[in-house]
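Look at a sample.

——
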Amino acid sequence: MQKNPEPWSREQAFQVYNIDRWGGEYFSINQAGNISVRPKRAAGPELDLTEVVAEARERDLSLPLLIRFQDLLRNQVAALNESFRNAIREHHYQGQYRGVFPVKVNQLREVVEEILDAGAPYDVGLEVGSKPELFAALAIHQNPASLLICNGYKDAEFIRMALLGRKLNKQVVMVIEKLEELYRVLSVAEQMNVEPIIGIRVRLQAKGAGKWASSGGENAKFGLSTAELLAAVELLRQRGKEHIFQLVHFHVGSQIPDILTVKRAVREAARYYAKLTKMGFGVKYLDVGGGLGVDYNGSRTSSESSTNYTPDEYTRDIVYNIADICAEEQVPQPDIVSESGRAIVAHHSVLLVEVFGSIAKDKTSFPPPADADHKLVKDIAGVLKKLNKRNRRECLHHAKLIKEEAATRFEVGMLDLPSKARVETGFWKIVESIVQMYRNGFGGKMPDEVHEYQSLLAEQYLCNFSVFQSLIDHWAVGQLFPIAPIHRLNEAPTEEATLVDITCDSDGKIDTFINDDDVRHTLPLHNLNGQPYILGFFLMGAYQDVMGDLHNLFGPVTEAHVFLDEDEPSGFYIEEVIPGFSIGQVLDDVQYETNVLARQMKTQIDQAIKADVLKPSEGMRLLAEYEKGLTKPTYLSI
């Protein structure tokens, strides 16, 4: 990308990086050209992300660094609950909203505890889907008025722990995922002499859309069919346990992009609730599951990385459609439960990564060929010389043939290395010129074949992080995340780039970026000028913290928790720091005991000293350096 001759404005930066669209009124660009964050939206102060980085460096924290804005997290909890309350008032709904946070979305204790504390005025509870999550939830769940929903498959131990919660007067609801579980729950409850609360997940016809559409529909992994549902309620009736069946549950998938999916599923599930109520079951709750999406690309469409609805529309549609079905069926309106996790936690977490170098296509000059040069060198030079905006497609095709012929001749030993290099340099000069013609508006839309070459011309910016650890959904399912430099946004970006991480895996790269409802394969970035250049990866709070792996043994990054404080000169303070894994910690995770490693290294160094390969003083210095290195961070020190 060439420098823009026009002055660069914040408005252009907003347009390029779409910050005002995906930012959710939390993120913006300030007058200094830096990304800013308002953790309480317009109701609170604005923080400069570069100042947060400066404060972190004062605390001897290095990048990559995960920043959690805890006030933003609390604001999202309140916003969702208030949205449901407003919808209930608007539609004169008779039930209440009973939100629960699904722990699987972000299991970190600091996150879950912050949500529970912020949600205490709303009686926000928890949802778990495994035994480890249940063990954690039982201990930190303190509000007897809030729900603790247990989803997932359950063995006897899982059931016993859930019933322990019931003995402690917790509102623990075990959701039956398959018919056999109901027999097991009733048996264990009888043994423990405790009354369970049962929910049943129904398998709806309605199916979601987007990357997680397979979560719903008739072939869904969880839930009971209509016939199985009838068998379950008949069993409860036979045992005289109709009263313990208190919740109807459904889930059609995470990150639902289209509001019509929500409407169809809610109406179908409400019909199940109504029919069961008419059969004499006093069901109190209708659990609409998760699925409230996040507009990752800011396009506000039904594309996979967006949503064509707002949270307020989502809550209004749920309340209205349940009320409508209940009125039609003439049954009481149930309390509404939702398990919205992604929408609560996504915005609060930002990953800051430093760019430390770049890999660019060879930009060696291409001087006119000499008489002694190979014919193919002269041919490619001739194409470059006659290239203009009218014949550019023809020149591209001719240049491709010359380059292919050069490769063929080289393979059979009929072309020397310098001539091959000259042909390739000339080819990329031609491609670069053609791409620039289209960028400058000569000839309309860029053809696909030229667009592919534009991506190949892009620089690769080397970033000090691991895609597999910090951005696992991008690698695994192609999830798009907003990415932008956190500074220099009052300057025109001069490069089109892709991002590569520091792992040894070729998949450790990012070459798809948000672009409204489309995808672009390069990201406009600034030239590297010798000063630190920092990128922000935004909307990172859902799933990425706990699903990352130890590819190349990089491990979790350091994270810092930021709180607003008007008494601080900067308006904030870093309340807690959770160090990233050291080299020794990740080695311990894969059964390399650090004391054993150090002992083995000492043995080898002692042998080298005895063999007069090393002087004793040098050997001891090297051993000390090795042992100290085991305590250092896994990421590069820049």
Observations:
- Residues 375-454 form a domain with the Methane Monooxygenase Hydroxylase; Chain G, domain 1 fold (CATH 1.20.58).
- The longest helix spans residues 417-439.
